[in-house]
Amino acid sequence: MADPPGCCFPCATCLLCLYSCQWITAKKEKRKGLRTTKCDCSWFLFLFCVFLFTLVWLYFAVIILNDFHNFNEFIFKQRKLWLDWSLVLLIATAVLFTYSAVLLVLALCLQLCRQPLKLHWLHKTLLILTALVVAAAFTGLGIKWAEEWRSARISLQATGPFLHIGIVGGMTILAWPLASFIYSARNTGLKVFLLLLYCTVMLALYLAPLGITSPCIMEENQLPPKPALVGHRGAPMLAPENTLMSLYKAVDCDVQVFETDVMVSADGVPFLMHDEELTRTTNVQAVFPERTALNSTTFNWTDLQQLDAGSWFLERRPFPTVQSLSAGDRYQVTKQRIPSLEQALQVAKQSNISIMFDLRPENHSDYQNFVNATLKVILQSGIQLDQVLWLPDGFREQVKQQAPGVKQVYGRKRLQNEKEPLQHVNLPYQDMSSEEIRQYRQDNISVNLYVVNQPWLFSVMWCSGVSSVTTNACQVLKEMKHPIWLLPSSTYIMIWIVVDCTSFLAILWAFLLLK
């Protein structure tokens, strides 16, 4: 077990100290009889698997940031506690990944220096805990947030080509410690097994691009028009959701549609509100403490106008962008009240944008009267009816008869042999594939997908040809003049060949140099 040239004793000793949590000098006479056993190899394999496990979870954590505001709202409804849990997720994930990555780097360096891999029991315990925590996170994701698995599959359309390059690069670097181990190990069966396993993995990686598909692998002249922006409850990163300030901010972001939620007060006034309770977005606990848990439809319009619908935005900071608000905007936030549908329609009319809304709650015993009250306000507002996009399924036929100019938007895919073909659909972005989007586009069906916040996801939707996206981040997507990346097929094939050939030559060099 001669030490390779360039591996200094002090460095090797420090590596052993960090990995083994004890001071073991790297000099031969001081470590006589200290060898890497089969048990040590097993722990190294476990370390490698934990590293891959945490790396995959880190990828998932970054992907699900697009939808994390929904998770924050869910926790608030359950626990009445507001916290930006995305920060907790990212910090915890970064700590687990960094720990396993540092240990793996130490182990690989020790192998290159031909030093024994004696992992300390403390590291073993922490690695087991890391694996259990990540496994619990994946399990919770699968049980409570299963749609994020589909989000991950969509994300591969944006990251697949780059993940391939990164994984090939990582496996190429791994060839150096692997070659060192193979040349120093005495077990011929183990050496043959590891070499065959490594070659199989590399062959699969070299051929992986054959299975990578992305709508953004296309010629520049094939790129569809940029999707229109639909402001999700306005511009909720810049102003309190479902307020007139949020609506005006959305107009400044060049949105073409204001998406909101409508409820009807006890005295028949339609107003903007998403939650059935008022606790998250108003100060109802301070003004009407005994009515905090009541449905917002039990309040009359006079009571609703007493509520502050803006200050919570500054107190809870639902998005990091709140910190960058100007003094003028902060003052304006504190003056926000719950707007009526009539007020929102007047702003939409003046700003020449459309308005799309759900009417809640659909299971209410008085829902038909809610529909009637809402239609009455729409017809009396003077807005062009084709600027109104109607989402609710309840009493849809009545709406078609009383307001035939209103655009009917459906929250489902089209059915076979449908009597009346759909013209507008509104679906979660996980529910439609790129192929379906293209087909709908060819059939002149407008497709709006929600909620799209991250530029990588917007790029995939853009390349797929979606008509519009509902977003919380209109101020970000507004500035995008082009998808994040767009590659012609010929360029992608050339990159694939160059990466694979470079990797093969580097691996060959590693095995020849360390022989």
From TrEMBL:
The chain crosses the membrane at residues 41-65, 85-113, 125-143, 163-185, 192-212, 493-514. GO terms for biological process: lipid metabolic process. One of its GO terms (molecular function) is glycerophosphodiester phosphodiesterase activity. Keywords: Glycoprotein, Hydrolase, Membrane, Transmembrane, Transmembrane helix. It is found in: Membrane. Its main location: membrane. Belongs to the glycerophosphoryl diester phosphodiesterase family. It is a multi-pass membrane protein. Coiled coil: none annotated. The keyword Membrane applies. GO terms for cellular component: plasma membrane. Residues 227-481 form the GP-PDE domain. InterPro entries: GP_PDE_dom, PLC-like_Pdiesterase_TIM-brl. This is GDPD2 inositolphosphodiesterase.
